[in-house]
Design brief:
422 residues, alpha/beta, 2 domains, eight-stranded mixed sheet, five-stranded parallel sheet, 11 helices, globular, binds N-carbamoyl-L-aspartate, binds zinc ion, Metal-dep_hydrolase_composite, metal-binding, EC 3.5.2.3, pyrimidine biosynthesis
């Protein structure tokens, strides 16, 4: 346990300057600081609750050449995160209580952030038979979020049964919304003028929004909860607005890359920009930003998807989908959304809302005495040209390389322990 530390003068998530005393892993009344307390002058910095990533691919077990729980969570701490939800598309898949316990144990051993395993919806992500949802939920790992991410739960009847099942224990199904018949096996970018010109097979926005429309109806039918992963289209936003107006229990996330990058980046055939769902035209980006600002989209999630060189360095159609994002997420959100959201809004979309969606107790809390000391200190004016090689991740598929972006994270504390310091 760290000795007591007093952080002085930081703007507390936009509420104005104040002091934070960290003692025994929690925030405590600054008036109780012992005389020999260690001091951190944070004047000019902003304090946010530790960030929570609903959507991280840590690749362990199975693809430790691309990422490990150790390296991925070290990258998360550098990005200001104190909790990450580890996606189930590992090898073996996280589709049993034992597999979930293994991922959680790897997280505890690494000690950089809380690691909460996401359970698969279907055995082996095969989309045919429900996984052991109840056993995973009742196990010590306490799985609450279930997802076949990387694959869509395409079978409506199976999706209905999954939603019915998780309702009993307050779980949620996080859907990778992609109709496999509309986004065929060769689809590798947004379907439009650019895909036509480049001769690449695209997929239309309808491949996403039609699944979301179906799933919100199933959530209503089952009175259960659905979460939409990585929303990428204006049409999906329209469906979400309709569903929320109707009182359906749906939440949604958007990635940093879909808030800033656009489909024209694929014209160089650089697989770094190949991601699922694909980068879209600027009109979609505008709508995604508006939806995040007005709360139609609840949260930002990274979809950090590290890939080894030998999986990424191929001709565009053959390369793996995905990009890293843990270390740049907050910077991209500040660049694109700070004016619209303010600091309290940034704290909500990157910490409070994701913690609520995932049902996490000690995360996304106010910076007040008695709460676990999960915190990120942010320099609101620091910027830097992103260098893909300067990373705790094992992978280098970084779409931000060479771009000048906010570089805000100064220090991260998880349960009172400093997990990153610039
Ligand atoms: N986002 C991606 O492009 N890839 C993800 C899978 C996913 O999130 O669908 C991966 O596991 O690599
Ligand atoms: Zn996905
Ligand atoms: Zn993903």
């Amino acid at each position: 346990m760290m000795p007591p530390i007093m952080i002085t003068g930081a703007d507390l998530a936009g509420a104005g300057p104040g002091d934070l005393l960290i003692m025994d892993g929690q925030f405590a009344d600054p008036a109780l600081a012992p005389a020999d307390v260690q001091r951190f002058d944070a004047a000019g910095l902003v304090a946010l609750p530790g960030l929570v990533d609903l959507h991280t691919h840590l690749r362990e077990p199975g693809r430790e050449d691309a990422e490990t729980v150790e390296s991925g969570t070290a990258a998360a701490a550098r990005g200001g995160f104190t909790a990450v939800l580890a996606m189930a598309n590992t090898d073996p898949v996280t589709d049993t209580a034992e597999a979930a316990a293994h991922v959680a144990a790897l997280g505890r051993r690494a000690g950089h952030t809380q690691v909460i395993p996401v359970g698969a919806v279907t055995k082996g992500l095969a989309g045919t038979e429900l996984a052991e949802l109840g056993l995973m939920a009742r196990s010590a790992a306490g799985v609450r979020v279930f997802s076949d991410d990387g694959h869509c739960v395409g079978d409506a009847r199976l999706m209905r049964r999954a939603l019915e099942y998780v309702r009993a224990f307050g779980g949620v199904i996080a859907q990778h919304a992609q109709d496999p018949r509309l986004a065929g096996p060769d689809a590798c970018c947004h379907e439009g003028e650019i895909s036509g010109r480049l001769g690449l097979a695209g997929w239309p926005p309808a491949a996403e929004s039609t699944i979301v429309a179906r799933d919100v109806e199933l959530a209503e039918l089952t009175r259960s909860r659905v979460h939409v992963c990585h929303v990428s289209t204006a049409e999906t936003v329209e469906v979400l607005r309709w569903a929320k107006r109707r009182g359906i229990a749906v939440t949604a996330e958007v990635t940093p890359h879909h808030l800033l990058l656009t489909t024209d980046l694929v014209t160089g055939y650089d697989p770094t920009f190949k991601v699922n769902p694909p980068l879209r035209p600027a009109e979609h980006v505008t709508v995604l930003r508006e939806a995040l600002a007005d709360g139609t989209i609840d949260a930002v999630a990274t979809d950090h998807a590290p890939h080894a060189r030998h999986d990424k360095e191929h001709a565009f159609p053959d390369a793996a989908f995905g990009m890293v994002g843990l270390e740049t997420a907050l910077g991209v959100v500040l660049e694109t959304m700070l004016d619209a959201l303010g600091w309290a809004g940034v704290a909500d979309r990157l910490s409070v809302a994701p913690a609520r969606i995932a049902g996490l107790n000690g995360q996304g809390r106010a910076l007040t005495p008695g709460e676990p000391a999960n915190l990120v200190l942010v320099d609101p004016s620091a910027r830097r040209v992103v260098d893909a090689t300067d990373s705790a991740s094992l992978s280098r598929n970084n779409p931000w390389h060479g771009l000048d972006l906010p570089d805000p994270v100064v220090a991260t504390y998880w349960n009172g322990n400093q997990t990153y310091r610039r």
